[in-house]
Amino acid sequence: MPTLRKLQEDEVRILARKGNGVRATLALEYDGYLADFEPNDYGEALLAEGESKQTVRNRLRAAAERRGWILESMRTQGPLVRFKIVSEEGDEAIDVFGQVDQGAEQEMEFAA
Fold it and tell me: For residue 45, which phi and psi values (nearest 5 degrees)?
């Protein structure tokens, strides 16, 4: 008879990311960066050595679009990307994203 146990949240996260490629891992990382933002919030990213402004801006823009937002970039000098989050669909875009997240969590529960 096998021994069963329920996986902890951190174990599930590791398993969920294990199959992801580099692009998917970066997408998750940038999604996390915008997790605390809401429409009309401003933010800035200080670039690490060797990072490109355009690349960071594009990744932030893609993460915003996955939430139904628009990212407006501002001109800056030096290794800094400054932006504003704008939503075309208001609060509805945030609710839809939350429902997608909950669905993914339920799928993971069934897999376990």
Answer: -125, 125
DSSP code of residue 101? H
C-alpha to C-alpha distances, 15 to 62, 73, 98, nearest whole angstrom: 24, 35, 21
Q: Which residue has the tokens 């839809």?
A: 96
User: What pLDDT is recorded for position 69?
Assistant: 93
Mean pLDDT of the chain: 79
Gap between the Cα atoms of 70 and 66, Å rounded: 10
pLDDT score, position 112: 45
Query: Each residue of 10-34: b (16+ CB within 10 Å) or e?
Result: eebeeeeeeeeeeeeeebeebbeeb
- What global pTM score does this model have? 0.63
Alpha-helical (H) ranges within 8-90 are: 9-18, 22-33, 53-66
Please give the Cα distance from 38 to 27 (Å, whole number): 18
Residue ranges of the chain with per-residue pLDDT less than 50: 91-112
List of residues 6+ apart from 101 with CB closer than 8 A: none
